[in-house]
Amino acid sequence: MQAAYVGYIGAPIMTGTRVLKEFGLTGIPVQHVENASATGAAAFREAYLAVAGGHVDVAMAKMVAAGARATSTEMALFEMLEQAGTSEFKSISKLVR
Fold first, then answer.
1. Sheet containing 30-33: which strands, arranged edge to edge?
2. What is the pLDDT of residues 39-67, one digit of tens each?
3. Does residue 69 register a pLDDT over 60?
4. pLDDT recorded at residue 38
5. Residues 12 and 32: beta-carbon distance below 8 Å
6. Burial of 47 (0-12, 13-18, 19+ CB in 10 A)
């Protein structure tokens, strides 16, 4: 990963950098993108243009907006199933890894 384009509205300053740090993504430029209801699309567009223009080989677009948060696959499954450790959770977890 050579760059990150993070879209969020109304979150505290440096939110994108703090979220990426949780994933161990440090030492890369992080650009905050904000464009009202098109924030996610604008962040994705910037990442696309950076790759298409040859500025970076790999870029990431991530939206951190009202209600959106960084999460793991396991956490998303837990939130949907409302329980972990069951055979259903374990079966689905294996499919998405």
1. 30-33, 3-7, 59-63
2. 888 888 898 899 899 998 887 765 554 45
3. no
4. 83
5. no
6. buried
Q: How many CB atoms lie within 10 A of CB 20?
A: 20
- Tokens representing 90 are 């374990």
- Span 27-33, mean pLDDT? 89
Q: What is the 3-state secondary structure (H, E, C) of the chain?
A: CCEEEEECCCCCCCHHHHHHHHCCCCCCCEEEECCHHHHHHHHHHHHHHHHHCCCCCCEEEEECCCCCCCCCHHHHHHHHHCCCCCHHHHHHHHHHC
How far from 89 is each of 72, 73, 95, CA to CA, in Å?
Answer: 14, 11, 10
Q: Show the tokens assigned to 13.
A: 């300053």
Task: Convert the pLDDT of each residue in 34-43 to its tens digit.
Answer: 888 888 888 8
| Percent over 70 (pLDDT), the chain | 76
**Please, which residues have CB within 8 angstroms of residue 17's CB and are 6 or more apart in sequence?**
6, 30
